[in-house]
């Protein structure tokens, strides 16, 4: 293969050689004849070859500015052939797999124009067997794959029951019997509650449960108490609320309860009375369950043990063993003014624990429905298994919301002061001698006595 520019010169030299030889033959004896022109022709021949190589190099350089470049490697080569020889030349640009005739192809199977084999041999002798790697493949193998973002640890808890949105009240039973704690309320069913305007799903898809605010009532005020149809022994119960009942005379609670009280146990997650500002989480059990220590550090809690360590209702006049939170955002007006928060109760082989997260400090794993309690830090309250077996004293629980008025606790402490949030008694605040008289005569005082709940979710440990 020769350069087009070199080819006419070579032919011209051949013609000149023929003319000179014929003239010399006629004038010089054959024995003295030593034609020099063939040597000149051979030099021209060599020069033509060099120009051909330069032309190929120039073409490669020119195409190199147009065609995509790739990494140089052992397979990024072109077979350049001249006069029966094969010369391997590094190529710039991308190629592809070779087909059976060893013609380069692109990744989609089409013949590529950017990797050419120059040869005067049959294509079958250029390369034997197999196919070459494309430079694209080389780039993929040499470039590290982008690292995926780290995945959060998977939760050991699986969601089994969820109550939220327009269907929040599906899966709950409405309690309509007399109040077991002797409050002056009449619990009504769903239809009656909606008709009375004390039960609804608001425009934000939150569940609303109110107390009746009729100015005066002769006996009891209407209220709501609901119980999950779902039953669990062990689990993780998470409740997100933006508002809870507050005010003198109120006794709201979010709690769980088992059968044949107190044999099945009771776990009060969120509970207090009147104008209290700090939550009080409490266990109520049969004999044998205690808190192993009164030291908050030993229990790994942020709250404080109050009124003793015995959880047996028979021995404590139904008081059980309570732990008071240290945060004024955990209950009542502080809770409401902060937009509420999330309460979580964990019940597993380690014991029972209650956690609280005020609005703005809710763990992302809770919001992602992949709770990781071991990462939540100190609990608000904890009852370790070493002194209260959680599967001996507690079983088959339902979750419950209620708001009662007065009753065994709120009525009994109407004249008590000195509790966080209750620096003066409700008797002093209201000027009314008894809880019952105040409740019956002051319906407007209960406008803040309502639950506004975003959701309740119950989890069980994965198998």
Approximate strand percentage: 15-25%
Q: Supply the number of structural domains.
A: 3
The ordered H/E elements are: HHEEHEEEHEEEEEEEEHEEHEEHEEHHHE
**Overall outline:** globular
> How is the CATH topology of the largest domain named?
Jelly Rolls
The whole-angstrom Rg is 45 Å
- Output the number of helix runs: 10
Distance between the termini: 77 Å
Q: What is the number of beta strands?
A: 20
- The multimeric state of the shown protein is single chain
What structural class do you assign from the helix and strand content?
Answer: alpha+beta
Largest sheet: 8 strands, antiparallel
Name given to the CATH architecture of the largest domain? Sandwich
Low-confidence runs of at least 5 consecutive residues? 1-7, 65-141
State mean pLDDT (0 to 100 scale).
Answer: 81
CATH class of the largest domain: Mainly Beta
> Helix amount, in percent?
10-25%
């Amino acid at each position: 293969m020769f350069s087009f520019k070199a080819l006419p010169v070579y032919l011209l030299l051949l013609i000149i050689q023929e003319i000179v030889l014929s003239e010399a033959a006629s004038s010089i004896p054959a024995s003295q004849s030593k034609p020099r022109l063939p040597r000149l022709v051979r030099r021209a021949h060599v020069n033509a070859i060099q120009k051909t190589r330069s032309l190929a190099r120039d073409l490669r350089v020119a195409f190199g500015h147009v065609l995509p470049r790739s990494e140089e490697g052992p397979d990024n080569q072109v077979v350049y052939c001249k006069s029966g020889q094969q010369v391997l030349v590094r190529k710039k640009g991308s190629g592809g797999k070779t087909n059976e005739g060893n013609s380069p192809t692109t990744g989609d199977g089409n013949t590529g124009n950017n990797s050419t084999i120059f040869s005067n041999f049959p294509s079958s002798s250029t390369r034997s067997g197999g196919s070459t790697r494309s430079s694209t493949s080389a780039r993929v193998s040499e470039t590290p794959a982008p690292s995926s973002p780290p995945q959060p640890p998977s939760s050991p808890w699986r969601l089994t029951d969820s109550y939220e949105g327009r269907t929040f009240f599906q899966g709950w039973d409405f309690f309509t019997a007399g109040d077991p704690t002797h409050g002056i309320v009449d619990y009504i069913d769903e239809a009656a509650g909606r008709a009375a305007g004390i039960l609804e799903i608001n425009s934000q898809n939150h569940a609303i449960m109110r107390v009746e605010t009729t100015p005066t009532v002769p006996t009891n005020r209407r209220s709501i108490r609901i119980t999950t149809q779902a039953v669990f022994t062990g689990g993780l119960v998470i409740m997100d609320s933006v508002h809870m009942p507050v005010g003198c005379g109120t006794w709201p609670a979010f709690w769980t309860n088992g059968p044949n009280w107190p044999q099945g146990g009771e776990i009060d997650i969120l509970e207090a009375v009147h104008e209290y500002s700090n939550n009080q989480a409490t266990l109520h059990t049969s004999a044998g369950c205690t808190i192993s220590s009164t030291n908050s550090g030993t229990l790994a809690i942020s709250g404080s043990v109050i009124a003793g360590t015995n959880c047996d209702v028979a021995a404590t006049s139904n008081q059980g063993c309570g732990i008071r939170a240290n945060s004024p955002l955990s209950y009542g007006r502080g809770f409401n003014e902060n937009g509420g928060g999330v309460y979580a109760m964990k019940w597993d082989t380690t014991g029972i624990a209650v956690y609280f997260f005020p609005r703005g400090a809710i763990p992302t794993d809770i919001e992602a429905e992949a709770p990781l309690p071991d990462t939540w830090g100190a609990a608000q309250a904890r009852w370790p298994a070493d002194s209260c077996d959680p599967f001996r004293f507690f079983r088959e629980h339902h979750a419950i919301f209620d708001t009662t008025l007065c009753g065994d606790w709120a009525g009994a402490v109407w004249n008590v002061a000195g509790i966080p949030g209750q620096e003066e008694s409700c008797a002093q605040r209201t000027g009314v001698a008894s809880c019952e008289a105040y409740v019956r005569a002051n319906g407007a005082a209960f406008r803040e006595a309502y639950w506004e709940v975003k959701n309740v979710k119950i989890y069980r440990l994965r198998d």
